[in-house]
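haha ok so turns out i had the wrong file open the whole time. this is the CORRECT one, sorry everyone. sequence first:
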Amino acid sequence: MDSISGTVSGLAPASWLRSLVWLTVAVSSVVFIEPAPYDILVLLLIAMLFPMGLRVPREIGVAALLLLLFAAANLAAAITSSDPETMLRPLTIRIYMLLTWVLWVSLVVTNAPYFSRVIWQGYAFAAFLAVAWGILQYFGHLPESLGAAYGRARGPFKDANVFAPFLVPVILYTLARMLRMRGLQLVLEATKFLPLAFGLLLGFSRGAWLNFSVAFVLYMAFSTIAAQSLRERLRLTILITAVGLVAVSALSLVIAYTPAGQRFIERATIIQEYDVALGGRFDTQAKALREIGRNPIGIGPGMSTPKFGMEPHNLYLHTAVEGGWVGAISFYLFLLITLVRGISRLNSYSDLRPNLQIVLAALIGTLVQSLFIDSTHWRHLWLLLALTWAITIAIDRGRPRDQYGDYV
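then structure:
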């Protein structure tokens, strides 16, 4: 396929491909209906691009094998369960998520600067759509058919605890642009940053706030270490301080003068009553740990709630209790290899390094939050995992700088 193979030699991909990739990511926040528009377009891309010549990069062989073991372990747990029909949907979703990872790695690696930029542009649109939706929803300006807030903005998502984390990578991306811009461009990026941050606040997700805090600190560390001069480090420090002061000032005004303020104070408490109550988050996690110890095969995909009354709210416990020991170990090794690849290439002299800094910081923030929530089926988690692999592969191959612009 000319438009795929052409990217390898530095030619611009066909406009239809760029538009389709952008559209796919741009609708990724609209997931209150199933199948979501994103899912339909991803399957369309898979059905079109691989028969037309898109190839799976050889470098993902070990990772793909680990994910195959993860899928096989979940299948085995489903087959040996007493209720395999109940597990068909979650099992299918897991396999589908693995396919999305293969698609994005395979496509982005053909021209990492170009497709990374297209994906970020689509992701930014999806985030702004979600924030606008969430703000209107929170303040009661949308019909209930488009989702009631119930005290927390959730936008076009089913859950505020997915809406808020979805925004974190784009907030980080916008912040990265702010640090690179000057003058009016800096002001423009700042005007984008504030509504995204407000959307993150209105989600009232403690996990998402932790996610952003970790990602922000890591990105600042990555950027400062990579700065090539004392002057650049000083500029970064000044800008970071200014962003922090503006954010704190805006947050103070929101807390003091809007109804969201009291809600923020309530949600800012680290431990909530339902966390420690009998049958709550921590009690469920203890039950999951005991089940993992006595059931090496796993209870099967989607069976946590029927078994324990609620999800374990922990990605790592969730994969182990449902997919068994083999599934969990395979998935943990996949995550470990992904992080090692990303971290080991942060010091590479590549035009892709700034992009890797954003993706890796956002990925680690999401994985830290996953200690307190099950993110197995989060579309944007698998996208971040794919971008990490595609960018690091492109760095290893020494791709030339994309002639059509910078990474953002």
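Residues 2-397 form one domain.
again sry for the mixup
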